[in-house]
Structure prediction request, 267 residues.
Amino acid sequence: MRDVVRDFTVAVQSAIIEHMSNSGGGVEDDGTALSDGTALSSHRLAGWVDQLAGIDDTAHDSELIDRISQLERIKSACAAAQAKLTVAFTASRTAGLTTAQARDERVHRSNAAQVALARRDSPIRGGRHVGLAKALIHEMPHAYTALSAGLISEWRATLLVRETACLAAEDRRTVDAELADRLPTMGDQQTAQAAIRIAQRLDPEHCVAPRPRPRRHPPHHPHRPHHPQRPTPTTTIPTLGHGQPRSQSEPPARRHVRVTAATRSTP
Prediction:
């Protein structure tokens, strides 16, 4: 059982990548895989989900880490596969429409809603998924290749697309090419900052440097003593003066005493 999960995860990722790079693969009308074994049907993918549900967590620590690493690569490969399928779905839905019909906002909302439903997400995020997929497939091929190979996460690809949204398609391809070699070894913040710098260099008119976020200071309470320990809460309450007769023409005399709230001791 030691190497079963590792072999399975590697096989899943390899099958996804092979299918995405195979232009001649396909599925039959009933959704089953073709005889060449390269097609990934929804039924076959569902079987992998069932197998992953029974993953063994009793292996050695090093093996557990290896499995986590391979599963992370699978997540990235699945994200790339989803992007490819999303672009194919939207293209199929707009095929045969006139230019005006294809640009209709209602068509885009409908496509985004169906993608969101498939991903169990909100319609707004469905539109973001569609936009990310189109940017990766059509404008950032190097980032898409790194994602499909499990070298970067979907979030890092999202940062790259987000920080270059101000650029034209050609400039976006330039950013993608310049960061292609460094992308797998960069962190998320490094990726975002590098994309911003290149975008500002390519199109300084439309790509404005983001304003630094103001530092958040803790709320200041001038009436609270600054003490390392929690201070004893105090309050001031008015009480009737002792020995003072109460009359209608004269308000009752009051004196203020400071009462210290005592905490109830627990036995």
